[in-house]
Structures are given as structure tokens and as C-alpha cells.
Amino acid sequence: MITHEQRMQKKKAVIDDKIAAAQEQRGVLLVNTGNGKGKSSAAFGVVARALGHALKVGVVQFVKGRSDTGEEVFFRPQSGISWYVGGEGYTWETQDKERDARTARAAWTVACGHLANPEIGLVVLDEMTYAFKYGWLELDEVIAKLLARPPMQHVIITGRAAPQALRDVADTVSDIGMEKHAFQSGIQAMPGLEF
Question: What was the pLDDT predicted at 117?
Fold first, then answer.
């Protein structure tokens, strides 16, 4: 019978080998997608981590149009962060495709400034995938800009239905599923949990 200690020693050897093989240091592109809750929340957790390591952070929100979210209220006054709310709300609220496209392009202009700035260590492009779904931005142009960013810059893109081409160029893709959601049971979105 294998003991717990033997199992852990074997596991440690496997992990140590993987750590030793991971020699490249460079910025990472992450995509948080899927129908589950927590894509943006996970990204903002990384924002806290990055700020804790004194990285400068740029956040661009593509769809969310409100400026009273808990994450913005908390992070905006922090030193080292630039926050841009580029959306005007969800598409079912605005119901104006051309206006939504204009606001997405304006947000993309801000994002491009961050992606060209080697002093920014983390860029969060929140709810950006909708810009591809609705044709507001050209995916090939965005991918080219992502691949040309400063070598040590990390990027997190959030939103449902990330296109396959974006998934393919990402270093890490988290497809966050949903088993159930309180909203489906008639529970309102609550401050501090949903916004």
C-alpha cells in the first residue's frame, strides 16, 4: 500500500519537473469566457494581485455602462490604475447598434493606448468579447495588437462566447460554466455580489 507521504513525494517530483521546465518569462494573455458568473470577478482579483506587486494596471470596460460598481469604487482611487468605462450598458438596454459600435471603438482606442505602454503591467479588457459577437471590432486587428504588446505585459479579456481565434492565441483560457444562478430563481442583482 502506498502511503500518503509517498503519494505526495511523487506528486512533488512531477510538479518540480514542470516548474523546472517553465523557463520563459513573458506577459500572458488570459481569456475568461463561458456562461457562468465570475469572469470579470476573477479578472479583478488579478487586478488586486497586480497592484499588490506594484504593477500599473489599465482597465477598459466595453459594455458595462455604470460607474457605481463595487470594483470601480474600490479600485479607481488606488495608485497605479487607469479605469475607463467605455460602454453604455447592455445591448438590450441601448438598442442602438451604431452607438454601441462607436462606444466600443472609443474603448478600443483607450485599450490600444494601454497595449502600447510598456509601463502598464496588466490590461483588463472587460466584456470585450461582445465587441466581436456584434461586429463592433475586427478580431484580426485586435489579435494583431495583442500580439504586438510589450513583452512583459499581461492581458485579461472577459466575456461570453470568446471567438475561437482569440482562444487560440491566448496562453490561458478559462471557460466558466454555470450550474445555476440566483437570478434564475427571481433574486435581484445585489450590490457587492453582482455589481
Answer: 98
